[in-house]
Specification:
Structural class: alpha/beta
Mean pLDDT: 86
Number of helices: 13
Number of strands: 5
Helix content: 55-70%
Shape: elongated
Strand content: 5-15%
Low-confidence stretches: 114-119, 276-298
Order of helices and strands: EHEHEHEEHHHHHHHHHH
């Protein structure tokens, strides 16, 4: 059993849980149920002979840690495995229930826990294996064709890696929905831009060529829209938004509002994904202690930029 503070939390809980599960017990000296639970947990740590480590956090003295884990009542126990919370419970459970909880994750003595029988399959993208990632995602989409989240990620990767024909085929079922979800419309606009660059002679124009055409006629919307698509293909998203905005301000209805639809698509593509539910939602480390810092600031800046362009669009349309 070890007492945990903010100073040793990273070492004794996060890092230690990479090699052996750590059961974190949030308690307080005035808490009656905590006094009943504590001795049982210490006994179990001895009985389990090193199969888990008991780490105790005094919630009164370590309020930062308690707040980071969102502790609302005590006693609360959180089982850390691999640097992340795996499970937990509240209240002073009897010894039998505690053994059931531990055995679920640690396995019976001499046996591997059920959730460790098969190692997690690594994501091919983590090692730069795009082909492997695409194959894996294709299988997943084929197995669950109604899973829009998987289809979106698959199509986005196909487009981003230049597999345009495959992307069009994988995107088709999503576009058949009524109404079509905005995120799939956004992918369609991105795909349209890349197909334009690949198939239209203007896709090979330099920006100077476009500017020369536009300089002679500010209302040459065909050239402006083509330029915006070329910019999209080169990931010059903000420049593309500015060009599309020029068309919208001059003619909101041009080409059945294609510039507005493309503008909205770019904003959707640039919008940071919503954080998934879990211990890291608030931008903290696996244990919920350290702020993500630079990454969080980047997302905030991106969101601010997108909001600014949404306001520009709103002003242009009114």
């Amino acid at each position: 059993m070890i007492d945990i503070t903010t100073e040793n939390f990273e070492t004794e809980v996060i890092q230690a849980s990479m090699s052996v599960p750590v059961l974190v017990d949030f308690w307080a000296p005035w808490c009656g149920p905590c006094k009943a639970l504590g001795p049982i947990l210490e006994k179990l740590e001895t009985d389990y002979a090193g199969r888990f480590v008991l780490a105790k956090i005094n919630s009164d003295e370590q309020q930062e840690l308690a707040g980071a884990f969102g502790i609302r009542s005590i006693p609360t126990c959180v089982l850390m495995i691999g640097g992340k919370p795996a499970d937990g419970f509240m209240g002073a459970l009897p010894e039998g229930k505690l053994r059931e909880f531990l055995d679920k994750h640690l396995g019976a003595e001499g046996q591997a826990p059920a959730d460790m029988d098969e190692p997690e399959t690594p994501d091919p993208l983590d090692s730069g294996d795009v082909a492997g990632a695409l194959a894996r995602m294709a299988e997943a989409v084929a197995a669950e064709p109604a899973n829009d989240d998987m289809r979106y990620d698959y199509v986005k990767l196909l487009i981003g890696t230049g597999h345009l024909a495959e992307a069009a085929g994988a995107l088709a079922p999503a576009l058949a929905q009524i109404p079509v979800p905005l995120r799939f419309e956004a992918l369609q606009q991105w795909l349209n831009a890349l197909e334009f660059v690949a198939n239209d002679p203007r896709g090979q124009w330099t920006l100077a060529q476009f500017e020369q055409k536009i300089e002679t006629n500010k209302r040459d919307f065909e050239s402006r829209f083509a330029k915006a698509r070329v910019l999209m293909a080169h990931n010059e998203w903000l420049a593309a938004l500015d060009e599309l905005l020029e068309i919208i301000m001059r003619d909101k209805k041009w080409d059945e509002e294609a510039p507005r639809k493309t503008f909205i698509a770019i904003l959707d593509l640039l919008t940071p994904p919503k954080p998934k539910a879990g211990p890291e939602v608030s931008g903290k480390s696996a244990g919920g202690i350290e702020l993500a810092g630079h990454a969080t600031v980047q997302e905030d800046e991106q969101a601010t930029l997108i909001s600014a362009y949404r306001r520009k669009l709103s002003m242009a349309l009114n």
